[in-house]
Amino acid sequence: MIKSTRQQFADTMLNVGKENQSLVVMVGDIGHGILKPFAEACQGRYYNVGILEPTMVSMAAGLAASGLCPVIHTIAPFLIERSFEQIKLDFCYHKLPGNIVTVGSAFDYSNLGCTHHCYGDFALLKTLQRTEICFPASPVEFDQLFRAAYQNEQLTVYRIAGKSHGIDFSARDIIFGKVIRVEEGKDVTLIATGPHLRTVLTARDRLGCNGINAEVIYVHTIRPLDVEFIRASVEKTRKVVVVEEHIRSGGLGDEILHATYNIPEMKFHSVSIPDSFITGYGTYEELSVACGLTPDAVIDAVNLWFS
Amino acid sequence: MNVALNKDFRRKIVDMVVTGKDGHIPSAFSIVDIITVLYRDVLSYDARNPEWKDRDYFILSKGHGCLALYVNLHHHGFITDLDMELFCKKGGILGEHPDRTKVPGAEASTGSLGHGLSFAVGITLGLKIQSRTNRMFVLLGDGECHEGTVWEAANIARNRRLGNICAIVDWNESAMQLMPEDDMLKKWAAFGWNVHLVDGHNENDIRAAIKTIQFKVDGLPSVIIAKTIKGKGVPMLEGHGVWHHRIPDQQEYRQIIEALS
Known about the structure:
The complex is a heterodimer.
Chain A: H1 5-19, E1 23-27, H2 32-41, E2 46-48, H3 53-65, E3 69-75, H4 76-81, H5 84-93, E4 98-103, H6 121-126, E5 131-134, H7 139-149, E6 155-159, E7 180-183, E8 188-192, H8 197-209, E9 214-218, E10 221-223, H9 227-237, E11 239-247, H10 252-260, E12 267-273, H11 284-290, H12 295-306
Parallel strand pairs in A: 1-2, 1-3, 3-4, 4-6, 5-6, 8-9, 8-11, 11-12
Antiparallel strand pairs in A: 5-10, 7-9
Helix pairs in contact in A: 1-2, 1-7, 3-5, 8-12
Chain B: H1 2-20, H2 25-42, E1 57-60, H3 66-75, H4 81-85, H5 116-129, E2 136-141, H6 148-159, E3 165-171, H7 184-190, E4 194-199, H8 203-212, E5 222-227, H9 250-259
């Protein structure tokens, strides 16, 4: 059975926690089962504080102020959106370091409805100084990115994807703050973050059948963004499609548009969640289709440029 | 002597507000006696090394009362005459709410109510994890106790047995303007805290209450409910009227200073 990224989170906490006595994990009444090994191996450094996310964020900032290295974990809308002021003031304004690990971002909890969706988190977090944003969609990504950033002076948010893209990256492929060129191409740049790398790769295969050679770039670190590499690719192709599980406003697409807008004859298209609530139900895959996060959406955009 | 000292601090607070053209005089007068006792008689600290590892912590959660903190930090050598002169002025480090990244001795940047106790609980838990015995004092407003996060933090402090925390509530009845049913003692007791009631303008009373607290690392947290008067010390400023965030004009300034002489 393939390990989930969330299980890797628990495994990484265990391994890093044994190495680093300052690591403290707090959860908001989720994850007890998978974090039990950490709780047993790192006694006195695991706290299920309860269902009070804003206070958990403030407490984590307090842990950091006392010299410890906090990791807090619960469901994205409650940890990012509900607790935004605590993130803003108690971590960022205070200039304190820490780590936030979320599950249930975008519409991973598809049938739980809008109360449990969170597709504006990149936009919110990008308004704050001293935040870093990672979107690991495979176990090795989480492990590498966490180890690279967890002890730095910033507040690092790891948005664990509910689904994996299924691509088997090696550990040395994953460098914090750097993109991965998954496929080389010359006609158009397709950029994906999260599980929709699979969507983009499918689109590339089908575009290839029509003689369009697409470059595919995968982004696991949204902030700091590897602007230099992305810009070089778009300078080559002059066309870019960005696919992401985030609302159009303030997501990865906006960031890439800012980075590339002044490239002559550059064409840009965003395949993202429309700026509205997703009120339907169904599986993750069905909601992806409902939001237009499909290979067809990518292909249609590219074909318009080549018609 | 103590009363005279507090009048000194009150005059200094008024001077800062007049010079800086901003500030909350009555809120500061409500808590200045409490903070004076803490810095003079209770807290362990090193003003030359504010981040001294073994210090006691003091967090002013009701950040808008910061002038009462500033006059004490100044008196005990954390901040300079120039810092005080530049209150609310370009280039200064002192604003209308304390900023921990600028002000030596300020443990938290407060102003948005409902953060201080949760932050304090986190620090105290962190100290406990590290087997450190530093004490934590955190001063909240009674109006601030409308915030749900205060009670989330109170619940955790009790359940994690953070006995090194002493919260102090400035019970000047701001909260009761909106919610008259406000039995502060019963509320904190219901959350499992050791509760002490004091006259927040009687230094002996405040000192005596703190002396009775055992500060056990694994004990129950304590709260001092300090009965105070907003604007205490100058009758024209007392109560919940227009003076909350008002700058005295020249005539009013003279009247206030006369009342404090």
